[in-house]
């Protein structure tokens, strides 16, 4: 199991999944395999657990663009100021905060390219692939406003899928991902990573009552 950077330290917490984001194309790469003379074209995006070294740029992102995170920005900034280590520990916790039936486990990841640029979360119910509210989906993600439409969301979702397939960190055999029917950009992110349309809803509680689409991505070979 991969641990949170707050307990392992900067030297031990090295990004394990790297994707090169170019202007029009993306493909997995390993730094030692990059061709000489082309590094100036590459912007490497890392998927990693929240860690202290990125906390300052995370706080700066909350101030600049509070909307990228579903959690209230002001409350997070107060918590960071009060006790940054406790804040990171809470972000890294995966167990449900409630004992209620159907309470969700979750794993939160940060995207960085040298500074914080987005987050992805995986959520699930223990012992099953299904969710009580199907329109909620297993995955949520957000990219800071000034780095949208540059491939970060597509890269981040691809890194997450690769990590979950290899690491066994979550007990899921597939990911269900939902988006509103009019969010074409999100649909492109999902389909670029192999998402197949499996469901649709005329009214989705998880999308403010708007029509929504449900996609599925396999984590285990069928």
Structure report:
The chain is α+β, with helices and mostly antiparallel strands and 222 residues long. It has a domain of 130 residues: Aminopeptidase (3-Layer(aba) Sandwich). It has 6 helices and 9 strands, in the order αβββαααβββαβαββ. The strands form 2 sheets. The protein has a 6-stranded antiparallel β-sheet with strand order 2-1-3-4-5-6, with helices on both faces. The chain has a 3-stranded antiparallel β-sheet with strand order 7-9-8, with helices on one face.
Can you lay out the helices and strands and say which pair or pack?
Elements: H1 5-8, E1 17-21, E2 26-28, E3 43-48, H2 55-64, H3 73-82, H4 84-92, E4 105-112, E5 116-124, E6 139-143, H5 152-167, E7 174-180, H6 184-192, E8 196-201, E9 212-218
Helix pairs in contact: 2-3, 3-4
Summed up, what is this model?
The chain has 222 residues and is an alpha+beta fold. It has 6 helices and 9 strands.
